[in-house]
Amino acid sequence: MSSDRQQEHEQAGTGGDEIPGDEYLSDEPGDELDEFLDSDDRSRKFLTTYVLECFGRERRGAAVNRHINEWLVTHSLEMFPSIADADYYGEVLVRKLSDESDAADEGDKEQRTQRAEASLPGDDGWVLSSLKDDAEELDFLQHGATVEDAVTLMKEKNRTKLPLFFSENDRSTLIGTVTLSSLTFEQTDATSKLVEKATVRVPVVGTDEKLFDWIPSILSHGFIYGKNQSGEIVQIYTIYDVATHLNTIAAMFLRANEIEELLRQILSRVPDPELKRARSNAKNLKSIPLDQEGKKFLADSDLSSSGEPDVVQRLVDSMMFADYMKCIGDREIWEKFFTSPQLMGASKESCIRSLNDARLARNSVMHFKRENSIEKLIPSFEALAVWLRKVAKHASAS
């Protein structure tokens, strides 16, 4: 990192969006990104933290995410997954756009920005690291600490469990986990050795693993550890983290469902012809008049969750399960994007039937219908998800 960028990085502190504006964002990439731009390589992987560091930040936020996406567009690059969705402790793939893509996108910056901000469908999703804020510190103990040291640190950090490493400089050598209950409710005296209390063993998995694949293990063990690309344990993911994450999702879903039910109740009084007329008059969200005179309309910034001007939505982003089924059912799309010797395992019929199950289950949940047994459909969803991951991975490698 250059001296100017280092100074800028120090001024920015922990980054994020705590400091308003883009004045602390670096316009220059790091040496490795520079070297990649000048090389003949079509793609290369970079640590997520390194990419953020190149732009003067330690954590993600709307400002730095936008800045990185704009830089990608300027240099005819695309990133998978997008910087906003990437595993904080993992890697992103930066790929140069082909000559054909460059020609097709000439003069269409919105489309290219959109491609840079989007990741391959089904290839990322929520990962374990999404349970924690970027760079949240992992508290731990090291070999040689006393029982008193452990109790003091737990009280200070408000922790009920702490990992015990052989050395603070080597977090890949986990001895075990010390729990507060083992120190307070079991027989513990001044001569007790802390290493004898580190008996809890739980899975240690990559922070880029799929979140929902490991929720059962977290619920079963109470927690699991997350390791980065170097094999170092960098996070602990607990039932509390899962509960907080899912509670947020559930709260949004329940509120959205209540609003939808109320709107349906009110709009049921409007004659169908008037509903059809109103729906056809508004071509998109930005064409909805905000005043009676029809002079004010929603802007791009209103439609973006970050409050910043957003790119034009891709058609695929507005699709529902019924639309997916229609597209996959198309003979040309199926043969071109879903068939290959490497993608054996799912027929067109099983894929469409499983998507239809997902459509029915989603509708049942969204409208609180209890007559359908959604649990019986889960195995088919899981099988479909595994196969679609292979399709997405195959597409990204092509």
Describe the structure.
With 398 residues, this protein is of the alpha/beta class. The chain folds into three domains: 3-124, no CATH class; 141-242, CBS-domain, CATH 3.10.580.10; 319-398, no CATH class. The chain has helices spanning 3-12, 31-38, 48-54, 62-74, 99-104, 109-117, 147-157, 180-184, 194-197, 211-221, 239-267, 272-281, 321-329, 331-337, 348-366, 378-397; strands at 43-47, 77-80, 91-96, 141-142, 161-167, 170-179, 204-206, 223-227, 233-238. The strands form three sheets. It has a three-stranded antiparallel β-sheet with strand order 1-3-2. Strand 4, helix 7 and strand 5 form a beta-alpha-beta unit. Helix 4 packs across helix 6 (109-117) and helix 13 runs antiparallel to helix 15. The two termini are 33 Å apart. Mean pLDDT is 76; it is low at 1-26 and 100-124.
Offer a quick outline of the entry.
Helix content is about 45%, strand content about 10%. It is an alpha/beta fold and about 400 residues long. A three-stranded antiparallel β-sheet has the order 1-3-2. A three-stranded mixed β-sheet has the order 4-5-6. The chain has a three-stranded mixed β-sheet with strand order 7-8-9.
Q: Class by helix and strand content?
A: alpha/beta
How many E strands?
9
Strand percent estimate: 5-15%
Q: Name the average pLDDT.
A: 76
Instruction: Output the strand order for the largest sheet.
Output: 1-3-2
Order of helices and strands: HHEHHEEHHEHEEHHEHEEHHHHHH
Counted up, domains total 3
Ranges where pLDDT stays below 50 over 5 or more residues in a row are 1-26, 100-124
Oligomer: single chain
Rg (CA only): 25 Å
Largest sheet: 3 strands, antiparallel
Protein name: CBS domain-containing protein
Region (Disordered): 1-38, 100-121
Biased composition (Basic and acidic residues): 1-11
InterPro entries: CBS_dom, CBS_dom_sf
